[in-house]
Amino acid sequence: MVVKPKEEQLPSFISEFECCFGELGTLPKVHKIVIDPSVPPVIHPPRRVPITIQPKLKEELDRMEKLGVISKVTESTDWVSSLVVVEKPDGLFVFALIRRI
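RESULT FIELD:
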């Protein structure tokens, strides 16, 4: 059973379980994604990002790259997924990859 804490209880909940919320979690090893060789590669076109959020988005992507969450691809690749970016009311971003084949 999952119990959602009330909004006013959230700060004390986070304090109590600080060890779980402290840092960004990472996997200790390099992992390989196995791709079925019978499936042809797909390249999705880039999606438009509203010009009003582009500077803030670049700042967030740079921050994520520095943290090691993402890495810049400098060479061509056979697989490209579209990125959808939504700005939340609090100014943070939600990222989603479109993975249609």
